[in-house]
């Protein structure tokens, strides 16, 4: 039985609001365009990232990695490295006899007084490898007689998902499209690479880690090192991006801690860009062969697909297919293909950008068959509207903003080499939150501390925590100090899956609400009213019935004397929800003589429930769409087909958009305050590449069913069409 | 980076004296270091000694009449900002402006741009012991060759990375070279060496010689331009580029020099295209003919046939830009 295509459409339109601390009807801070509190320290360099932590006597660690995509390690000789200048610790990471499964797999490590000494020492480690056959590409893995590299085989067949009556569906079709689509492997390219600084005091480990989960990383350290979680403290005050690739200490974190223990000194171990590309995660590739039918009335009738992809050495490559649109009769069979390549990790909306690309390109091809406008065609085939499925409303809004009415049919008829085109695509995501705990102190001097063991992956979490507490306490944000990014603070989950804001904001709302109530109870006798009649607003505690009965915030807090308010709280239902939707439109210019595609503009209409801070929400959308431009045109983890060695482990030939490659981007956020907070990390990156690919098709009249859309693919497709006698 | 000694040469004379003992790869000059530091960090080159050559000549002299001379240590940004140079040699100024990023142009020099090593990803990676590093084969032949050469027949299939070299040859420029035997000038056209002549470098320069400058002849009655096709508009290498210098009599092209870049192990002069332009009134049709002629002998590899189309477009557009 197939999964429902839109799992959460039955979400009630207006969920039950939190009884004691609902979001305010007339907020003063929530919903305003709030600049990041830590913007100035970030742009001036004062913010300390893991990379910037320097401890007394700090050593520098480096990892020796396999140059072979597949080999058995016969022996490792550390002796020369151990004697090298500055070296204080050295270790095997893999035990001789075991196999390395991809280029960049960890073999050994050293720590030395300087990074240069550590790098020099690595080159003195003598490793004897027995090189084994390897699989560099999906084609190699799938061909007859391929070497069996992985224990369970190179190909893992999934169960077929089926619903409806496929034969009847195809019988009802007036037109059939059969096509193959593919997307490439991307790496996360976090600007701050993975890594940590580890320091022991006796049996206690402190680690400054670039991580999107301080508590998960604490657990990972404790488990791998065999020490209690209570002995581990993980600190991430600032971090430079994770995108799903930084949930634990990873091997380099564990190795860093072990080297620090061996050397008796703090060790810094940050990966370099090459290591980052090879061994710090990626988005799997995806391939599909699809047969789909559409009726003469423009209603989809049937969908039959086989799909596959590689997540590297022993990691799956699943993705949703079809995506969003309703095919009443459908079948889909997927297989995961293993290759000797770096292992996939969650990457911003895992699976969705792939599923969106395959389905949305197919939708344009089907729309052309029935000669319908792509937007009209999509709306006809969407699921019923629901709070988390608002595309029927959003498509027309975005089309109007974008100027979709000026779109020409497939193939720009204007003369000259520059062809312009427009395309669109939709996205959906779950998100939602729970589990976060927090602590709030109100001190006698009026200052407030809010503590929460979440972390700011770079999206503005510190600002959101401060804003929610200040809103709840009715005081300016300057009076609230948000302390986050430390596993010694109350538990919060990882920043992933668009769950951070919907987990953290309710926890802060409830906890600071409880602190406010505790303050009310303490000051009500002095004010001379019932605590239940007090409100906190505009820096005052006062009776909601008689504003003259009250105290300034400072005077009220002074009454606390030597015993501050100190309360714990946690996430509770009624302040957050799950399930968001959005649409995007893109315009491109394709030079059909050079094959170069430029994205000129993108319009995005996106919801995420109650919008805490439009500025940071828009920033999330913009960042997601820039990543989408990279997915569409530039990024590609490319392995040499003969050796399985990556040819572009850098930022030179692993292409990323620079300032001149980034289009004009317009974001329209759709506020749904009645739903509470929903995350926005993933959705805006899902549909960008699909919209761009459809725009390229609309511009050129040729269909590039493969990402990235390189000049090579564009020119080859145009030459192919000319050979077969087609014209624009 | 392997540890190295540093010789801070205060003058051209000191630099030459220091370089006098150089053997290939063991002692290297450094000016802006834009290319060299990357090569060293990637262990592609591992010199024992670096000689600072920032004190080589760095002036740009563009007399109203006579030869233009640019010192090897002139920064690329200085070429971009030199009004008289831009007027007399617009293709050279445009080439300087299109190099890398503002930071690279602020530090990178003319000599360094001509002497930079290829960007071939097999050459640049320690993981591939390719022909150019003394290995047994060119990995590009049956590998990932979308950015490799479409001219030259190997056995090494790099494309030459210098953007400045392309218009320099189009203008009929020369390279000033100094060494233990004194100074000499080499036609820019003869300065770059195919892999069969020099596998371990890309020029005819000896290890103990230095580039000290470039010389440009007077470009009288000349229309010139360069056109580059880049995929990314920010910080990318060209897929293909072209520079042309057309000497005109009235509206007839008396003689032409046509050079393609990023298509061969050296900047690729095209006598066939030059012949198509000579004696013609230049229009779209002539430009198309010249571009077809220039690429007629291209031999693309397994994955770079598209570069033939891109190079044709670059040349057509360079010609039309020169005439505009």
At a glance:
The complex is a heterodimer of chains A (728) and B (324). Chain A is α+β, with helices and mostly antiparallel strands and 728 residues long.
Describe this structure in words.
The complex is a heterodimer of chains A (728) and B (324). Chain A is built from 18 helices and 29 strands. In chain A, strand 20 and strand 21 (448-452) form a beta hairpin. Chain A is globular, with a radius of gyration of 28 Å. Chain A starts with 38 loop residues before the first helix and ends in a 5-residue tail after the last helix. With 728 residues, chain A is an alpha+beta fold. A seven-stranded mixed β-sheet of chain A has the order 3-5-1-14-11-12-13. In chain A, strands 7, 8, 9, 16, 17 and 18 form a six-stranded mixed β-sheet that branches. The longest helix of chain A is centred in the C-terminal third of the chain and has 28 residues, at 500-527. Mean pLDDT of chain A is 96; it is low at 1-10. Chain B is of the alpha+beta class and 324 residues long. Helices cover 29% and strands 22% of the residues of chain B. Chain B has twelve helices and twelve strands. Chain B has helices spanning 12-19, 36-41, 76-81, 83-88, 90-98, 102-107, 110-115, 165-170, 188-191, 271-277, 284-295, 306-323; strands at 5-8, 27-30, 49-52, 60-61, 68-71, 174-179, 182-187, 210-216, 222-230, 238-249, 252-261, 268-269. Chain B has a five-stranded antiparallel β-sheet with strand order 4-5-8-6-7. In chain B, a hairpin with a 2-residue loop joins strand 10 and strand 11 (252-261). In chain B, helix 10 (271-277) runs antiparallel to helix 11 and helix 11 runs antiparallel to helix 12 (306-323). Chains A and B meet through helix 3 and helix 18 of A and helix 12 of B.
């Amino acid at each position: 039985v197939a999964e429902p295509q839109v799992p959460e459409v039955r979400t009630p339109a207006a969920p039950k609001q939190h009884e004691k601390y609902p979001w305010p009807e007339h907020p003063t801070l929530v919903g305003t365009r709030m600049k990041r509190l830590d913007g100035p320290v970030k742009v001036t360099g004062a913010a300390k990232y893991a990379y910037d932590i320097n401890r007394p006597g700090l050593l520098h660690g480096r990892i020796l990695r396999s140059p072979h995509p597949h080999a058995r390690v016969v022996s490792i000789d550390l002796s020369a490295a151990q004697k090298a200048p500055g070296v204080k610790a050295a270790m095997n990471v893999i035990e001789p006899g075991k196999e390395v499964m991809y280029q960049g797999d960890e073999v050994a490590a050293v720590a030395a007084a300087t990074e240069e000494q550590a790098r020099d020492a690595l080159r003195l480690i003598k490793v004897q490898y027995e090189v084994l056959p390897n699989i560099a590409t999906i084609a190699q893995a799938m061909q007859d007689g391929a070497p069996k590299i992985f224990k369970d085989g190179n190909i893992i067949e999934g169960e077929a998902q089926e619903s409806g009556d496929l034969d009847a569906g195809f019988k009802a079709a007036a037109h059939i499209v059969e096509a193959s689509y593919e997307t490439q492997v991307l790496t996360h390219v976090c600007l701050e690479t993975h890594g940590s600084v580890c320091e022991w005091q006796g049996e206690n480990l402190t680690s400054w880690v670039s991580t999107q989960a301080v508590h998960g990383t604490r657990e990972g350290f404790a488990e791998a090192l065999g020490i209690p979680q209570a002995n581990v403290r993980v600190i991430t005050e600032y971090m430079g991006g994770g995108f799903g690739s930084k949930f634990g200490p990873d091997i380099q974190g564990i190795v860093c801690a072990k080297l620090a223990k061996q050397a008796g000194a703090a060790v810094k171990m940050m990966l370099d860009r090459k290591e980052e590309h090879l061994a710090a995660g990626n988005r799997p590739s995806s391939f599909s062969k699809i047969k789909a039918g559409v009726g003469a009335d423009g209603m989809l009738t049937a969908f039959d697909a086989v799909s596959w992809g590689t997540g590297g050495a022993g990691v799956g490559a699943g993705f949703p297919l079809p995506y969003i649109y309703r095919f009443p009769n459908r079948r889909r069979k997927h297989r995961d293909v293993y290759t000797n390549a770096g292992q996939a990790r969650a990457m911003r909306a895992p699976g969705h950008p792939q599923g969106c690309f395959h389905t949305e390109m197919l939708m344009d091809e089907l729309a052309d068959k029935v000669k319908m406008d792509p937007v009209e065609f999509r709306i006809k085939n969407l699921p019923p509207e629901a709070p988390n499925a608002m595309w029927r409303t959003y498509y027309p809004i975005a089309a109007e903003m974008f100027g979709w009415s000026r779109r020409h049919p497939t193939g720009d008829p204007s003369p000259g080499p520059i062809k312009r085109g427009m395309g669109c695509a939709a996205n959906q995501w779950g998100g939602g939150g729970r589990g976060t705990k927090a602590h709030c102190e109100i001190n006698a001097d009026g200052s407030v501390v809010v503590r929460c063991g979440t972390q700011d992956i770079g999206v503005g979490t510190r600002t959101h925590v401060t804003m929610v507490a200040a809103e709840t306490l009715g005081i300016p944000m300057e009076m609230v100090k948000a302390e986050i990014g430390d596993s010694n603070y109350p538990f919060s989950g990882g920043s992933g899956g668009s769950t951070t804001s919907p987990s953290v904001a309710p926890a802060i709302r409830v906890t600071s609400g409880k602190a406010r109530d505790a303050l009310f109870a303490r000051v009500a006798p002095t004010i001379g009213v019932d605590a239940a009649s007090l409100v906190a607003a505009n820096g005052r505690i006062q009776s909601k019935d008689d504003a003259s009965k009250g105290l300034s915030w400072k005077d009220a807090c002074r009454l606390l004397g030597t015993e501050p308010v100190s309360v714990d709280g946690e996430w509770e239902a009624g302040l957050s929800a799950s399930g968001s939707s959005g649409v995007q439109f893109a315009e491109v210019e394709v030079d059909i003589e050079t094959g170069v595609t430029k994205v000129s503009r993108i319009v995005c209409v996106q919801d995420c429930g109650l919008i805490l801070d439009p500025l940071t929400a828009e920033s999330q959308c913009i960042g997601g769409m820039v990543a989408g431009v990279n997915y569409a045109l530039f990024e590609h983890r490319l392995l040499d087909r003969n050796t399985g060695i990556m040819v572009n482990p850098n930022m030179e030939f692993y292409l990323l958009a620079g300032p001149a490659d980034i289009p004009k981007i317009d974001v329209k956020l759709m506020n749904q305050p009645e739903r509470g907070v929903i995350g926005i990390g993933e959705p805006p990156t899902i549909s960008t590449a699909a919209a761009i690919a459809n725009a390229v098709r609309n511009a050129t009249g040729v269909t590039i069913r493969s990402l990235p859309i390189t000049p090579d693919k564009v020119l080859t497709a145009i030459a192919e069409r000319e050979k077969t006698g087609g014209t624009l | 980076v392997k540890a190295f000694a540093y010789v801070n040469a205060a003058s051209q004379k000191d630099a030459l004296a220091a370089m006098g003992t150089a053997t290939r790869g063991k002692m290297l000059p450094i000016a802006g270091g834009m290319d060299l530091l990357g090569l060293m960090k990637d262990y592609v080159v591992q010199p024992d000694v670096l000689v600072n050559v920032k004190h080589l000549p760095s002036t740009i002299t563009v007399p109203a009449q006579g030869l233009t001379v640019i010192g090897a240590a002139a920064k690329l940004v200085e070429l971009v900002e030199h009004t008289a140079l831009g007027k007399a040699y617009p293709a050279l100024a445009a080439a300087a402006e299109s190099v890398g990023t503002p930071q690279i142009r602020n530090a990178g020099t003319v000599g360094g741009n001509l002497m930079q090593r290829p960007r071939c990803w097999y050459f640049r990676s320690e993981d591939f012991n390719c022909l150019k590093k003394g290995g047994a084969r060119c990995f590009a032949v049956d590998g990932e060759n979308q950015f490799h050469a479409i001219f030259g027949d190997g056995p090494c299939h790099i494309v030459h990375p210098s953007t400045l070299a392309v218009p320099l040859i189009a203008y009929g420029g020369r390279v000033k070279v100094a060494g233990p035997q004194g100074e000499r000038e080499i036609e820019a056209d003869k300065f770059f060496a195919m892999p069969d002549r020099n596998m371990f470098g890309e020029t005819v320069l000896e290890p103990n010689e230095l580039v000290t400058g470039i010389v440009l002849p007077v470009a009288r009655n000349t229309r010139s331009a360069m056109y580059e096709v880049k995929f990314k508009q920010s910080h990318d290498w060209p897929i293909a580029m072209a520079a042309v210098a057309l000497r005109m009599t009235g509206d007839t092209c008396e003689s032409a020099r046509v050079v393609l870049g990023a298509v061969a192990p050296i900047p690729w002069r095209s006598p066939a295209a030059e012949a198509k332009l000579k004696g013609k009134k230049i229009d779209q049709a002539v430009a198309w003919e010249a571009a077809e002629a220039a690429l007629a002998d291209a031999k693309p590899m397994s994955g770079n046939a598209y570069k033939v189309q891109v190079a044709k477009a670059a040349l057509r557009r360079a010609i039309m830009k020169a005439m505009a």
